[in-house]
Design goal:
The chain is of the alpha+beta class. The protein contains 5 helices and 15 strands.
Length: 364
């Protein structure tokens, strides 16, 4: 106690800065050992403030000639009428990348977990290899269909699934199971920081992390210009579909990102990382968060369908995906998922290590 008082007096006299020894510095990294040579890297995000949501001007761009999102829909209203100041009160660690196929495989190998898509009667939404276009002037045909026998092990790509790809075809239930396993594994090994647990990020944590520390209401983490996204993200761009001589139709980024479908996590290196050092926060795959979907906009605190019972039946996903038009890969974009058992070859997640939230009770 006496030494602490002396330090405070010295600080007052000489202007020394006292920092909380327990809180890591911004950008500090943590290597989480999943076993058998598989690791997961997390980055420390300090507490702070950001502007959640988007402006009318941003929404107009998103549905315009560059953005390419469908005009006349209500999905842009999900972002709220105007940006609003939102606070993240506690620092947290976040996966530098989405959870990869190899990392999820390690979880399944050790725990014996069976994903929702693999259970009896299970199915998942995947690309339809027979799809040959939208046929907008006759009948609209979408490139995705629900299939049995497909899962995170085989998402129906037209190429081999690789351990370095982000895991897809996993449900909200599956993601929470991964986080629970990781919490228990790290706790048993004595490596879990006191007062923290692995979980999905809250919606506020996710958007704050996506914006990379910026207080400005930018469209993307790097700014407002889609052209500046070249070499930063995996998105619908000028790349031939496997075995074909056509690209994804409709609006797209005006360059090749090197992949007609999904890219490996952190493929774009330093240029693909935002101000917090997080990779693939825009594009790549949709990322689920902890909250229930509120069509009026995101919340500072975790939002539940029923606050007293803490139910979540429509999880929120954020960030866009490899198939999306530029207007759907912005920091503010948010969608509600059909159910906690739904999975899709465009959807994945990344982990958060933070203060425990009241664990949602999933409604099937």
């Amino acid at each position: 106690m006496k030494s602490a008082r002396i330090l405070i007096i010295l600080a007052a006299v000489f202007g020394l800065a006292i920092t909380h020894a327990a809180e890591p510095a911004k950008g500090a990294t943590k290597q989480v050992d999943l076993g058998r040579g598989v690791t997961l890297e997390a980055v420390f995000i300090p507490p702070g403030e950001f502007m959640m949501g988007s402006t009318p001007e941003e929404k107009k761009w998103a549905t315009g000639i560059e953005g390419g999102a469908t005009p006349g829909t209500n999905r842009e209203s999900f972002e709220g009428e105007q940006p609003r100041l939102t606070r993240v009160k506690s620092g947290f660690w976040m996966g530098r990348t989405e959870v990869s196929v190899g990392q999820f495989r390690r979880f399944v190998e050790e725990s014996g977990y069976v994903s929702d898509a693999e259970k009896p009667g299970g199915e998942t939404q995947v690309f339809d290899p027979e799809w040959d276009g939208y046929h907008l002037t006759t009948k609209v045909v979408h490139p995705w269909k629900s299939m049995k026998g497909k899962s995170w092990r085989d998402p129906n790509w037209a190429f081999p699934n690789r351990d370095v790809f982000p895991v897809v075809c996993v449900s909200y239930n599956d993601m929470k199971a991964f986080c629970k396993w990781l919490t228990e594994k790290e706790s048993k090994a004595g490596r879990l920081p006191e007062g923290l647990k692995y979980r999905l990020p809250t919606e506020a944590e996710w958007e704050y992390a996506c914006r990379g520390g910026s207080r400005e209401s930018h469209y993307f983490w790097w700014g407002n210009e889609i052209e500046e996204g070249q070499g930063r993200l995996n998105i619908s761009a000028i790349d031939f579909l496997p075995g074909r001589k056509k690209t994804w139709p409709l609006a797209k980024a005006p360059w090749s990102d090197g992949f007609s479908f999904v890219s490996p996590v952190d493929h774009y290196g330093e240029k693909g990382r935002n101000g917090f050092g997080l990779a693939d926060m825009c594009g790549g795959v949709w990322e689920f968060v902890l909250d229930h979907f509120d069509p009026k906009g995101g919340h500072e605190e975790v939002y539940y369908e029923d606050a007293e019972r803490r139910t979540v039946s429509r999880p929120v996903c954020r960030g866009g995906n490899y198939f999306d038009v530029p207007g759907n890969a912005r920091c503010a974009v948010r969608l509600g998922i059909r159910s906690v058992t739904y999975s899709d070859s465009r959807d994945g997640f990344r982990i958060c290590l933070g203060v425990p939230q009241k664990d949602p009770v999933n409604n099937r």
